[in-house]
C-alpha cells in the first residue's frame, strides 16, 4: 500500500467519480478503501479498507505488509497454500513475496494496514531486537489482537496528525511482531542456469516494458525454449512472466503517479493500452484506482 482530515474514501468500481468522497452501494456491497501516506511517517504507506467482492491478483510489494484484520476473514495465497486471517489476526507478507487476496466469508473483511519499507523495518530491528541481517516475518498469519490494535492506533494517529503517537506506535508494533514472529530473510539460492535465464528475461521485460516480446520471441532471444523459460521464471519469481510484467508495470505506475504524471500518460508509459486498462490492473493490485491514489500523494506534497 495525506494528513488528518484530507483523505478520500473512493469508489472502487471506477476512477471517474467525484473527489474527495465517493462510495459504492450494490445490495450488500459497501466497499471502501483509502490508501495514503502521512508525511511524518516517511517510508510507510497506510491503508484502511473494507472489501466484499474484491479480489487481489497475484502480486508483490516492495515494502512489508502488516495487515490487521478488524472484522471478517481474508484469504490469501502465500507460500504454496491458502492462508486465513480473521478478526484479531494479522496478515504478514515480506517484500517481493507473491501473494493474492480475497474475502473468506460472504460479508468480506475490514482491515487496516501499514506498509513499512525494508529500511524502516531494518532500522527498528537493529535497535530493538537481536535479529541480524535483513529481518523478515516467519509465519504469514499471526493471531495477536494486541498488535492488531496497535496497527489501528497508528492509522488513527496519522488521521489525527499526531506524529509522536503515530511514530511511537508503529515502532512498538513492528518491534512486537519481529520479536514474536521475526527471523532473518531467507538467503538467495546459488544461481543455476535456470535462475540466470530468468534474471535475463526479467531484465529484458524491465527494459522493454511498454513493448514486451512474446514468450516465444523472448525465449529465442535468450537461447532457450518457451516452456523452459516459463518454468525457470516461475521458479525464480513465483509467477509467470506476463503476471510479473503486470505487477512491474503497476509498481512503475505508482512511481510516476507519485511524481505527478497524469494517469492517462502513465498508462501509455508503462505499456497499458489506455487509462481504463491501467485502472483495472492498478485497482486489483493496489486496492484503489490510480486517480484516488495520486490525489492522496498530491495532498501530502501540497502540505510538505
TrEMBL record:
Record-linked Pfam families: AraC_binding, HTH_18
Keyword annotations: DNA-binding, Transcription, Transcription regulation
Keyword presence, Transcription: yes
Identification of the protein by name: AraC family transcriptional regulator
Record bears the keyword Cell cycle: no
Domain of life, per lineage: Bacteria
PANTHER family referenced in this protein's UniProt entry, alphabetically: HTH-TYPE TRANSCRIPTIONAL ACTIVATOR RHAS-RELATED, TRANSCRIPTIONAL REGULATORY PROTEIN
Domain HTH araC/xylS-type: 199-296
PROSITE patterns in UniProt: HTH_ARAC_FAMILY_2
SUPFAM superfamilies hit by this protein: Homeodomain-like (SSF46689), Regulatory protein AraC (SSF51215)
